[in-house]
Amino acid sequence: MTALLTVENVEKRFGGGRSLFGGAKRAVHAVQGVDIAVNKGETLGIVGESGCGKSTLARMLVGLDRPSARSIRIEGIDPSDFERGNTRVLAKKIQYVFQDPVSSLNPRKTIRTILETPMIHLLGLDKPAREARLEELMQAVKLSPEFLDRYPHEFSGGQAQRIGIARALAAGPELIILDEPVSALDVSVQAQVLNLLADLQQRFDLTYVFISHDLSVVESVSDRVAVMYFGRIVEHAEARELFRQPRHPYTKLLFDAAPVPGKRSVRGEAEPAELPDPYAPPPGCAFAPRCPNVRDRCRSERPTLAADQPSPTHAAACFFPVEA
Ligand SMILES: Nc1ncnc2c1ncn2[C@@H]1O[C@H](COP(=O)(O)OP(=O)(O)OP(=O)(O)O)[C@@H](O)[C@H]1O
Question: Where is the ABC transporter domain (predicted)?
Answer without folding.
Answer: 5-255
